[in-house]
Amino acid sequence: MLLSLVICSVLYISSSSFLDDETDSIYFDDESLEFSDWTTIEYNEKFEFDLASFPLQLQTNSALGSGEKTRINFWDDEVIIGMLTISFDDELSYHISSCTEESIQGIAVPSKMNRGRQLWTIRKSEKLLTIECNDALVLQYKFADSDNNKCVAKWREDVVAVEFPFSDDAAELFRVVGKDEFESLCAHSSCYPRWGNLLKGRRVQANSTCGQDGPEEFCLVSNEREEIMCGECDERSMYKRHPPNYMKDRRIRSRTTWWKAVNGEDRVTLTLDLETMFQFTHLIMVFYSFRPAAMVIERSTDYAKTWQPYQYFAYDCQKVFGMRERELGEPDEYGVQRHPDEDVICTSKYSYLEPAQGGEVIYKVIRGRPTTNTNRASLRNLLLLTNLRVRFVKLHTLGDDLWDPNDLEAKKKYFYAVEDWVVRGSCFCNGHADMCTPIPGMEGSEKIKNMINGKCECQHNTAGNNCQRCKDFHHSLPWQPGNPATGEAHPCKDCSSRIARTEDGSNNSGTLFRSEKGTAPGIVIPFN
Q1: Of 40, 309, 335, 528, whose CB is crowded by the most CB atoms within 10 A?
Q2: Element (H, E) at 410
Q3: At residue 470, does pLDDT exceed 90?
Q4: Per-residue three-class SS string for 22-72
Q5: How far, in Å, CA of 331 to CA of 353, rounded?
């Protein structure tokens, strides 16, 4: 694949900059730099950094043909998701781990580039890696274009830290660019807000929490019914309470935290209520107890007025839910075959008795559904929600199906407990915003680190919480969502650019389109 990769030699033109006759390139005197916000690179050291929100900038001072390389490791929590390499060989080339098998050459670059620094600006979204050199766009790499199926899987993850390995011999300084310093990607194409945990800054509702009616004894047991640990749950004690918000922060003051339901209750519900429409891609639950023997994940798109199931989970789907275990799109127990986007299935994958602690339940909206045309309405709509609900239906009782619910000694071994819960999603902006702020009534949430807010900062002359319409006096074309596949922004246009009016106000040179509220949205489909 031939990509237009151009290196430019203009960093910043000021009174101390000048034109070098020998190289025909513009460079600058190092003393003209403001170094106060730049950091000297320390190799093999991780720097915490949210690349989804703000670009990373590097300075290099390398000549073509030098063989020098800039290498950057991108970290997601505790693992490296990938490495970017920019090589100053006879021609400039780059390599993206898990995406490009070999370094890819760009088009011809100036042959005499032996003086002057280069300023690189690097952005990464869930779908794109974008690189600018001295304010010029030089690379926009779509992860989906790679022949390696690991490319999308790895590079879609959020970057929380960067690292420069010892093998980097070109980069000298780096910094994080503030929001007021860079031009949004929305200026060039459709754009999308960052993804994150929708639980951040929000309350989880539980209809059952231990210790609220006084101290309650419990025991964690192994698969062989051996007691691992016994304790007491008491809402009045900060060291013994286990409220729902403990699912959001795995550790407090170096101790593991977890939510626990009342002993022996089969039917328990956890609910996340959102303040507006969001996009949802997947959830992960890590259990401190045995996982449920049966549960359901559901969503609402009308603020909890009605609910639709995403998926059923059970150790025995037929016995608990009357459903045959199968894959999406396969005929159900009645021989009915549905399109995968309209199908709901039951699986036993996450309902096994083992492990006794640390078992996971993972649900991904797009898993098992065709991804050849991700812009179809049926798949788009599956990602939208205003509320998410997890209903635990049946406890694992280690084969003791006849235990007496009034037997407190037996009851204290059977309960639900969740150590960690992640609900991954993003603000929903129809491809017309890359930043979101709190909606009315949620003021102050911007101070919560990494919270995903719900009101889009609309670009492309659009308006509304979700940029779902054209702003006033910009209706010369009908509103359209941005296209995540092509990057087309489809901005709304000023009426004056298409319409001329006579003195009496009549329109005599075109059609004035008016966008309607509630237009069917267009959303970016993340690959999971």
Answers
A1: 528
A2: helix 408-411
A3: yes
A4: CCCEEEECHHHCCCCCCEECCCCCEEECCCCCCCEEEEECCCCCCCEEEEE
A5: 28
Question: Of residues 448 and 300, which shows the higher confidence score?
Answer: 300
Whether 395 shows a pLDDT value over 50: the answer reads yes
Per residue in 118-176, pLDDT (tens digit) is: 888 898 888 888 888 777 777 888 898 899 988 988 898 878 788 999 888 888 888 87
Length of the chain: 528
In this structure, are residues 159 and 52 in contact, taking their beta carbons and an 8 Å threshold?
yes
pLDDT of residue 500: 43
HSE-CB of 236 using CA atoms within 13 angstroms: 4
pLDDT tens track for 32-80: 233 336 888 888 888 877 777 678 889 888 877 888 899 999 987 668 9
Of the candidates 230, 231, 288, 238, the one whose C-alpha atom is nearest the C-alpha of residue 259 is: 288
d(CA 276, CA 333): 37
Q: Which distant-in-sequence residues (6+ apart) come within 8 Å of 316 by Cβ?
A: 348
Q: How far is CA 464 from CA 302, 387, 452, 455, 470, in A?
A: 18, 20, 17, 8, 8
| Mean pLDDT, rounded, of the chain | 79
Give the largest Cα separation in the chain, rounded: 92
- Whether residue 72 contacts residue 168, with contact meaning beta carbons closer than 8 Å, is answered with yes
> Within 10 A of 375 (CB to CB), how many other CB atoms are there?
15
| 407, 397 contact by CB (below 8 A) | no
In this structure, are strands 346-347 and 308-314 parallel, antiparallel, or unpaired? Answer: parallel
Pairing of strands 268-287, 259-260: unpaired
